[in-house]
Amino acid sequence: MIFGVNDVKRFLSVWALLLAASAAGAADERTPAPSDRAGGSWTVEQVIASLKEGREPSVSFEEATHSSLLTKPLIVRGVLRFTPPSRLEKEVREPYRERYIVEGDLVTFESERKHVTKTISLEDYPGLRGFVDAFRATLTGDVAQLRQAYDMVLDGVRHKWVLLLRPRDPAGKSMVDSIELSGSEGRIETVTVRIPDGDWSVMTLSPGHAP
Questions:
Q1: Total tally of structural domains belonging to the chain
Q2: What is the pTM for the complete model shown?
Q3: Could you give the CA distance from residue 128 to residue 146 in angstroms, rounded to a whole number?
Q4: Does the residue 180 lie in any domain?
């Protein structure tokens, strides 16, 4: 299939949490050591609130994809964008040009190198639809729906934390094993996405507004 589902799910899972995080429900938090408490350990609620407060309309990224089908990691660079209320875009600029756009219930893929534009409906991909619904729940403040989407575990302190998310829905689990966000205070530094077949990707985000 020209429009790779693996690419779409990575795109959606990153954006659902990176750009639209506004609230989170109860999460399983690891008990911090005494030194962590002294260093200012954080709760999931504090992390998510800080991400929302520091959210930018666009940010540069570098993503390395590791796959059993590749002899070495595939590295791409580009820009992530969010246009209120619900338009999401991932633009790859190097080493080729591609775009993934989510607007409403439609996901569009554009590729200059493949000379193709393809659109799918989220109605046909329940797993992807679950990620988008979780994203929209954060915008509307529907905490109950967000709780239903992910199991969350937070580890670390204010200046160095890791938030692990695992989809609860069977359709979501079939596409994504886990999403791991690491960062400092209200800034995400890396996003690691692992899928059930063993492939994984690491996206590193650069601070500051991207063109």
A1: 1
A2: 0.79
A3: 15
A4: yes
